Give the backbone structure.
Amino acid sequence: MRIGFTGCRDGMTEQQKQTLIEVLQEYRPAEFHHGDCIGADAEARWPPAPEAVVIGLAHLYYIWR
């Protein structure tokens, strides 16, 4: 299973962080994809699901410029 995540630039609340951890522990994804922005995307970079491959995805707009 693959799980994708992106969030707001203001970061996650403690409750949102805990929910992310719980979801990843429950579903145990093989891959965890996250955005490449400041805030919640940056906070999600640490591997809360150690068995998952963590992949950061940059916005294509910036790559194609």
